[in-house]
Amino acid sequence: MEFDPRDRAVYLPTTGTLVCADFHVGRDAASDVEFRVGEHDDLTGRFERLLERYDPEEAVIAGDLLHSFDRVPTGAAATVRTIADLAGERDCPVVVTPGNHDTMLEELWDGPTLPEYGVADGSVVVTHGHVPPAETAECYVVGHDHPTIEIEGVRRPCYLYGPDQYRGSAVLMLPSFSKLPAGIRINERSAAAFQSPFVTEARTLRPIVRDEAAEKTHEFPPLRELRRFL
Predict the structure, then answer these.
(1) Interior CA angle at 81 toward 50 and 71, to 5°?
(2) What does the alpha-carbon distance between residue 162 and residue 221 come to, in Å, rounded to a whole number?
(3) Residue range 52-80, pLDDT digits in tens
(4) What residues form the membrane-spanning segments (predicted)?
(5) pLDDT tens digits, one per residue of 134-150
(6) What's the domain count of the chain?
(7) Cβ-based neighbours of 142, under 8 Å, separated by 6 or more
(8) Which of 145, 150, 180, 198 is exposed most, by the fewest CB atoms within 10 A?
(9) Backbone torsion region of residue 129, taken as left when φ is above 0, otherwise alpha when ψ lies between -120 and 50, otherwise beta
(10) Domain that holds residue 119
């Protein structure tokens, strides 16, 4: 599957699909900190720049658009509305595949929602990744675990790609689009330590790190080969 990773999202050029996972809107307001950290401007600004760069035919939010389970934090409605408006201004339909955090989704989102979204001919299925899929696909694009990798003492968000990861199908796991969750450190993590059932053999996953400052994408060998250097 051809894909272009950028700014914690991924673009599928063959179908013109932009995929983001884990916005966790409201994470800022739900945090036990005195000062807010600019969640609204960060999420909406970066999403807008992705729309401007790719002019996608469609966008899919692969779960956990919201953060809180039982309430709508201050400012969350405005952020969700802005995300929808930015896509609408470009005639880009948006589908949400709800995640485990999206228990309040109906309160804020009136657009289409599907547990799993098949892209184009259905060879690629986008879903949050917290439960096993109902649909079969050649490749699954998921979020949920917020993968990060530590290299030379610096922890970076990363994508994980496994060509034969779930019942013979490829899996592409995205980092959290929100910069607030710490994420899981994958350096020594086994498949059993992942929360997503889509990860069945961690050693075959290939980390991909996008350096936005340098505008470079670094693709690493599978973890079984990489771990001795970390």
Answers:
(1) 115
(2) 11
(3) 999 999 999 999 999 876 777 778 999 99
(4) none
(5) 999 999 999 999 999 99
(6) 1
(7) 21, 62, 126, 127, 128, 129, 171, 172, 173, 174, 196, 198
(8) 150
(9) left
(10) 4-229
